[in-house]
Amino acid sequence: MKKRTLVFNAPFVLGFSFACVAVLVVGIFTQGKSSELLFLVYRAPLDDPFTYPRFLLHVLGHANWTHLVGNISYILLLGPMLEERYGAKKLMLLMVITALISGIVNFIFFPEAALCGASGVVFAFILLTSFTSFKNGGIPVTVILVAILYLGQQVYEGIFTADDVSQLSHIIGGLVGAAAGYAWNRK
Q1: Alpha-carbon gap, residue 26 to 40, rounded angstroms
Q2: What is the largest CA-CA distance in the chain?
């Protein structure tokens, strides 16, 4: 009988997921103080030294377990395939760009809202995944359909629903994922 072992098939994706869990657990123990300090983007003074790291770190913070599980499920589903195809450095770049753009946009245009969570990264992964069959300069129909369904839904919900979900972060993530998918697969 062959011995079975656990294989860390996507170290970057797993590390990111574990970091998100750790941030939430620490946030629970600190009654949200650690999240407010480092893992939420909100309008803060520009001379606050924690304002700038929040533009990136907010993707690690989540409001609760439901929020975390919703995002991490997609990341664990799509991430290993993306990490295998593009590598950890490109995925990190994708996450950093998504976090930075959505963090800055939220800071500038939504002063009354606090932003946290990896849903922008999830949407970047979804659109990037749809480019995996990108060949010979043609645009796969799946890319168009995914963009219409996911981004169209976010535009609709952003206009017609009032909730605590940042559809703009989803749209930004989707656009970053689509741009990366096109750039990384056009050759």
Answers
A1: 14
A2: 62
Instruction: For the chain, 187 residues long, give each residue's pLDDT as a single digit of tens.
Output: 788 888 888 999 999 999 999 999 999 999 999 999 999 999 999 999 999 999 999 999 999 999 999 999 999 999 999 999 999 999 999 999 999 999 999 999 888 889 999 999 999 999 898 887 766 666 778 777 877 887 777 777 766 666 555 678 888 998 999 899 888 887 6
Architecture of domain 11-185: Up-down Bundle (1.20)
C-alpha R_g of the chain: 17
Which residues on neighbouring strands pair with residue 115, listed in sequence order?
Answer: 41
Cβ–Cβ under 8 Å, residues 103 and 41: yes
User: Would you list the domain boundaries of the chain?
Assistant: 11-185
What's the pTM value of the predicted model, to 2 decimals?
0.87
Cα torsion 67, 63, 83, 14 to 10°: value is -100
Interatomic CA distance for residues 37 and 41, integer angstroms: 9
In 3D, which of 183, 174, 173, 184 has the Cα closest to residue 101?
173
Phi and psi at 41, nearest 5°, equal -95, 125
